[in-house]
């Protein structure tokens, strides 16, 4: 990727969510939907996108500089809890953080893939 990376965010970094301030200096390119290749789990305080499944994730794409990307790596505990992969978005290739640690079996699955609407849609265990 270039000096300015794109990042696809699907959870607490999305606009209006509690960690959105981490992207205050980044350029919000707009909403996007990932390929249908994930399982989105609700861990309680944050989501975990498992790198397998058939769910498309609803999110947003940001252009970030190297410092912001490094800050996001710290926030996401990369590479301990999350790993980074590149996905195709409406704005070009972007990083996505996917869960790399052990999944807890009691995490509900957000079947629509939209963390922001998790409380308005049914989840399954």
UniProtKB/TrEMBL annotation:
Full protein name: Gamma-glutamylcyclotransferase family protein
The keyword Nucleus is annotated on this UniProt entry: no
Coiled-coil segments: none
Source species taxonomy: Bacteria, Pseudomonadati, Pseudomonadota, Gammaproteobacteria, Salinisphaerales
Entry similarity comment: Belongs to the gamma-glutamylcyclotransferase family.
Matching PANTHER family: GAMMA-GLUTAMYLAMINECYCLOTRANSFERASE, TROPONIN C-AKIN-1 PROTEIN
GO MF assignments: gamma-glutamylaminecyclotransferase activity; transferase activity
Keyword Transferase recorded: yes
A Pfam family annotated for this UniProt entry: GGACT
GO cellular component term, pick one: cytosol
InterPro entries named in the record: AIG2-like_dom, GGACT, GGCT-like, GGCT-like_sf
Residue ranges of domain Gamma-glutamylcyclotransferase AIG2-like in the record: 7-116
Enzyme active site: 76
Keywords linked to the UniProt accession: Transferase
């Amino acid at each position: 990727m270039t000096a300015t990376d794109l990042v696809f965010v699907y959870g607490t970094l999305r606009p209006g969510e509690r960690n959105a301030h981490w992207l205050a200096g980044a350029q919000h390119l707009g909403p996007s939907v990932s390929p249908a290749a994930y399982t989105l789990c609700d861990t309680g305080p944050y989501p975990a996108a498992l790198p397998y499944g058939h769910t498309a994730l609803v999110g947003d794409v940001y252009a970030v500089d190297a410092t912001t990307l490094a800050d996001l790596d710290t926030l996401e505990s990369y590479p301990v809890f999350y790993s980074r992969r590149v996905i195709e978005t409406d704005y070009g290739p972007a990083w996505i953080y996917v869960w790399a640690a052990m999944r807890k079996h009691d995490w509900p699955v957000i079947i629509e893939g939209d963390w922001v609407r998790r409380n308005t849609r049914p989840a399954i265990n």
